[in-house]
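Run log, item B.
One chain of 281 residues. Sequence copied directly from the ordering sheet:
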Amino acid sequence: MLAEAAGVSVKTVRYYSDQGLLPGAQRSAGGHRRYGTAALARLRQLRGLRALGLSLPTAGEVAAGELALDRALADQRAELARQLTELRWREAALAALADHPEELLTLGEALRAAPGLDVLATFWRRVLPVRLPTGLKSAIVDVVLPELPAEPTPRQALAYARLHALGSDRKLAAAARPPAGKDTRSLTLTYQGTSEAYRLALAELARGAEPGPGEALDAYVAAFARGAGRVDDAAFRRELATFEPTHPVISRYWQLVRVLHPGPTMGDAHDWISAALRLAS
């Protein structure tokens, strides 16, 4: 019998045949299905692919030559990597919970689904000015999101959970949103310029430079001067140095991101420029 030769049940053979996954069978005089050697080879192939985790439809496409084996295996490896990452996050969360049982709700809510950045992206879209051009806003969101580790530590799992809670709070996002006072052109000039200034500051941080005068500071001051229609002079720099410090919600965001993100963050770049501005004033 085909089922016995392939090491599967008769029910499996019938199901695969009914799904069109096996070559057509002939009928005996008694009405029983009779399969040839091609059916046995196909059944063994399907069984092997299923053992590797491929879904039955995908295994059927590979066996029928409708899907390349290397493509199917690459997709399966990617899915397996995703599952392993999710399991590592759960493992880290359990370890974090053992030391911080009071964080049960925070950890549980954050890891109900696989860790991701959608909540944090939404948080920043709520924080950034409504009138900021969509393309510029998306570019800013892309660079302020952290990189999530594939093998998190318990400390990182807890930081992510707290970050998730912060990002999910609409009231916190509203509190951190800058007051609406500038027109779209002024906002665009300011945010474009500060984004470039932060990029330059990150380069300074990467080489271990202390806060001080240079391109990063000049770009930052110029961005605010253009946005305000002012001249970049000593008086303006002294005034800029007295601006309100970073909102506590944003400071908390960057504090948590530093636990997750390898290397300097955009928050570090802002702090570097702020220190350089105070020293220069």
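Observations after the first pass:
- The first strand starts at residue 26 and ends at 27.
- The mean pLDDT is 90.
Flagged for discussion on Thursday.
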